[in-house]
Amino acid sequence: MSGTPRRSPLDAEHRARGATLVPFAGWEMPVRYGSDLAEHRAVREAAGLFDVSHMGRVELAGPDAAAVLDATLVSRMHDLPDGRARYTMLCDDDGEVVDDLIVTRLGDRFLLVVNAANTSAALDALRRAADGADVDLVHRTGHVLLALQGPGAAALLAAVSADDRTDGAPDATVLRPFRAVATRVAGVDTVVSRTGYTGEDGFELACVDATDGVRLWAALLATGADLGLVPCGLAARDTLRLEAGLPLHGHELGGGLGPFETGFGRLVHLDEGRTFRGRAALEPLATAGPTRRVVGLLPEGRRAPRAGAVVSGPTGPVGVVTSGAPSPTLGRPVALAAVDVTAVEAGGPLNVDLRGTPVAAAVTPLPFVLPAARRAG
Fold first, then answer.
1. CATH number reported for the structural domain that contains residue 67 in this entry
2. How far apart are CA 194 and CA 205, in angstroms?
3. β-pairing, 27-32 with 6-7?
4. DSSP-derived 3-state class of residue 134
5. Which of 147, 160, 167, 233 has its CA 20 to 30 A from that of 241?
6. Whole-angstrom distance between the N-terminal and C-terminal Cα of the chain?
7. 177: Cβ contacts below 8 Å, ≥ 6 apart
8. How far apart are CA 163 and CA 174, in angstroms?
């Protein structure tokens, strides 16, 4: 993307903390503040705070809001209860994933968080579906979206919002996963959802006002200083989501990889009479199944395969690595790969090409790393 990168409302905060800033999806965002490994481990063991304000935020309200979403997304939204969030995907007419996103319903409003690189495409699709409908569609810009992630996230959120609860604001720490509430945190009006992209427990906090968002960021870091909280960049976010086996658009989604290939076929609601973009292309996969599947691989040795590395079976190439990196938690390389279903079902040995050298790799269940609560159990 050309032009001057956009900057988060928290840009000055990042620079003051010595963050390394890099271009990302048209934005300049922190990739790390110090050590990738330290930030990763903080989220696994205590808590990390991410600025994800580069993500797109779209709101729909009005009598036809649910119908517009039903016609656009693979999951139905008219039955989404108040205070619930739903992970879903937006596809084109050929069933290709345009974006994966989370939709939250608060009263008569639907709040959508979309990937930064896909915001324009998602907006185009929503606006086409909304043409002529009785719906108000707002693209929020200048907002602050934070991700507070890790086993200590709930305790930290409780500490920073103690005065707000005394004043009667709803307690976001009691939310179950994929629930949301409009409340106050550190005196700031905030929509809090128990969601995230790290595989650990955590919350995402959205503020419409940028100044309030800066206040919230500062309050969380100040309160969390003695609880192990650290600010985290995009590098730790990527290794965390990889360990959790979560798909990333442009890697495990797109390029012919969709909900059925990534194990999210349950998101595709094929209600009788319901039409949505991509249904004709996706519906046959519900019965026939996909020809490729995204699987976890544990390569031997210490070198991590990168996206694009060829995966082979006994008779030749059977797939390609979509994401790969050293796992800070496991101390060994891990990878996600799109592999022919026949090769997975055969259960034979696989190899990954590492710069011309075939390296044995075992197919393993996902996630690579369980969240802290389940690791302890």
1. 3.30.70.1400
2. 9
3. parallel
4. coil
5. 160
6. 45
7. 194, 195
8. 16
CA dihedral 57, 63, 69, 71 (to 10 degrees): -150
Which residues are CB-neighbours of 250 under 8 A, at least 6 positions away?
117
pTM of structure? 0.97
Q: Are residues 147 and 231 in the same domain?
A: yes
Q: Are 240 and 200 in contact (CB under 8 A)?
A: yes
Q: Which of 262, 159, 157, 146 is nearest to 198 (CA)?
A: 146
Q: Are residues 119 and 165 in the same domain?
A: no
Residues 47 and 178 grouped into a single domain: yes
Check whether residue 33 and residue 98 sit in a common domain.
no
Give the separation between CA 324 and CA 242, rounded to whole angstroms.
8
Residue 207: both structure tokens together: 């503020």
H or E element, residue 146? strand 144-149
- Of 294, 298, 290, 194, nearest in space to 248 by CA: 294
The answer to whether the beta carbons of residues 1 and 24 sit under 8 Å apart is: no
Per the structure block, which two tokens stand in for 241? 């989501």
Question: Which of 104, 138, 172 is the endpoint of a domain?
Answer: 138
> Cβ distance 30 to 237 under 8 Å?
no
* 269: in domain: no
Render each residue's pLDDT in the chain as its tens digit; 377 residues. Answer: 457 999 999 999 999 999 999 999 999 999 999 999 999 999 999 999 999 999 999 999 999 999 999 999 999 999 999 999 999 999 999 999 999 999 999 999 999 999 999 999 999 999 999 999 999 999 999 999 999 999 999 999 999 999 999 999 999 999 999 999 999 999 999 999 999 999 999 999 999 999 999 999 999 999 999 999 999 999 999 999 999 999 999 999 999 999 999 999 999 999 999 999 999 999 999 999 999 999 999 999 999 999 999 999 999 999 999 999 999 999 999 999 999 999 999 988 899 999 999 999 999 999 999 999 888 76
One domain, residues 110 and 226? no
Write out the residue range of the structural domain in which residue 15 sits.
6-52+142-241
* In-domain check, residue 370: no
229-232 sheet: strands from edge to edge: 180-185, 188-193, 202-207, 144-149, 47-51, 229-232
